[in-house]
Amino acid sequence: MKNYVHAIPTKLYFGKGQISRLGEILDQFGKRVLLTYGGGSIKKIGLYDEVIGILNKGGFTVTELSGIEPNPRIESVEEGVRLCKENNIDVILAVGGGSTIDCSKAIAAGVFYEGGDLWQMVDSNHGALKALPLVDILTLSATGSEYDGGAVITNLKTNEKLGNMYTYPAASICDPTYTFTVSKYQTAAGTADIMSHIFEGYFSATEDSDLSDHIAEGVLKTAIKYLPVALAEPDNYTARANLMAVSSVACSGIPEYGKQGTGWPCHAMEHELSAFYDITHGVGLAILTPRWMRFILKKDPSCAWRFVRFAQNVWGIEGEDGLALANAGIDRLESFFKESGIPMTLTELGIGEEHFEEMAAHANFGGYLKNAFVPLTNEDIVEIYKACL
Amino acid sequence: MKNYVHAIPTKLYFGKGQISRLGEILDQFGKRVLLTYGGGSIKKIGLYDEVIGILNKGGFTVTELSGIEPNPRIESVEEGVRLCKENNIDVILAVGGGSTIDCSKAIAAGVFYEGGDLWQMVDSNHGALKALPLVDILTLSATGSEYDGGAVITNLKTNEKLGNMYTYPAASICDPTYTFTVSKYQTAAGTADIMSHIFEGYFSATEDSDLSDHIAEGVLKTAIKYLPVALAEPDNYTARANLMAVSSVACSGIPEYGKQGTGWPCHAMEHELSAFYDITHGVGLAILTPRWMRFILKKDPSCAWRFVRFAQNVWGIEGEDGLALANAGIDRLESFFKESGIPMTLTELGIGEEHFEEMAAHANFGGYLKNAFVPLTNEDIVEIYKACL
After folding, report:
1. Which domain holds residue A112?
2. pTM of the full predicted structure?
3. Residues A295, A384 contacting (CB under 8 angstroms)
4. Residue B188's pLDDT is what?
5. Is the domain of A207 the same as that of A233?
6. How far apart, in whole angstroms, are the C-alpha atoms of residue A118 and residue A132?
7. Is residue A112 part of a domain?
């Protein structure tokens, strides 16, 4: 069991109606609010009007940044920083999913960034940055951005999608009813993202960090149980609530406490897909994950014990033959994603192999994935991409 | 799934050697430190000298409060408050187990308490209080006081042992090596305490808060796996680390998020035992728990589903007959405690039935346990006590 430091300053307000606390939450920080959101789905479900009503009643001054993209772009960060500076913003209120929250984190930190070019902030090594306070209202169970300090920002000019640390939300309002109208496609993609956050840490060499592994398996079993329910009954509160609860935990780092780091290989490979083709992050992960699993199991069969545990503890598969069990678990996962209705090949997304080598080189920049559970070379990554066609 | 608010401000520094961060942690708060500890075991293991060395090197001024009792008493709280006021203490450093940390929490809040009589603070309804910052170094995996805001203080004059909310530690240093010398008796009692914290929330009417239940089962399975290892090999790092990791989570509230409250019936009943007889808390819990389980299962067989889940998911017991499964799970738990070597009857502790009615009335003051998983009357509690003889 490895050492760790655990502290997540975010206060989660979980459950139906928690928006009633919004005014008091924001009041801790000030009256000038930058309201950030995406493509307008929050208007369709009436959440925008509800938020504006609360802000008006509370005497807040509101500046808006709308249209934040699904893979949020550096241009939106730049615009947000400009608005914050112009309007002396006290607190950012992000209403949306992980993209809106990610973009808002980079804005919150960008306000204090002294380097000038904000892409330099995205593309440099740093820990948590000085930032404006950020409050969010979550509308999609997926990235876990509501309960971590990281964000992923895209630069379509350079075909780069880079994760980095910025700031934790001060408070996240997680009301599962806001996800009732999320499409089947986004629900399934979001759940694939949640599950991938677990896989990235679960498939680690550490054998003796039991609580982390139990939490990881609990998140996976919860997601596996409730995704089909949410797809069949979009307004099933229990299903939506369980998916939302696990989304926050999955990416929080908690399921990795005490475990050796892995470099998150599927995320590294997926970010290249999104950067080049602007695809839905969770779909890219769902496509990559079973292929990555099969590849590393074949490359280093000594890692099979982890896959056996996955098959037994997550899927409840029984059997004596370790390798057969390991493969059965991967098969079950691939079937699970297929049954959720999302595309499971890159070909279906119109992606061919023309950029695979460039993407592999960037995903593995500086030999980054040499410390993965099973180390990956650029050639390995190209092979995994090809298996996804 | 019920609503919840999640925020634990404590920063956990987990693992071997984390004491190297002590100076920088304390420096955030000031230079005048009240060092609190218990009966001197920290001197035997060299931890006292190490702490004093760090404090001297860092230029801290140290006032000491030693001799804090296993069930910490109001007199120690009073003495600590007096020392803080006299010496203008900036930060309390508690080195020990739950008793030392609990007492230190009450001291930290007592410094600002304006009611005069500190027992009134203990015996009144309040949430978190204004308090001095508290840092702790944990030496016993048991109460989880290192990662919650509560404390239990005893008044031997009135035979009362009352839990209340005070303040969260700002930081907890959790180094499993400090528990290598913990006796078999205290190791087993501490693990019973950890497991009881889970039982109190696990046996709830809520059926659909899956993540909480998975975390609860993960804590139990980890404790069950590693207690025998720690008893057989006291300096097994993996065993001690896993027990320490689950101790913090078990009492944090996290395993109860989304679940209906239960009133923590075993703790309510045990606090009476400790208040009247000053016994080891975890031993009292180990004695009470299987008897309480059998009693409620008999009183209301409709609650059997929870016990079936417990038998299957925690102990891996298989079978078709629900009631047989439920009982088998309870039997396994009782055997587990017995095998750990702690006394499993009140008679062994020299406790007879003379105060049972008074204790039951106090444990159930105002019908407190009418909202338990299976509601308990005073007569029920007397019957449970008698089953423990």
Report:
1. 11-178
2. 0.96
3. yes
4. 98
5. yes
6. 16
7. yes
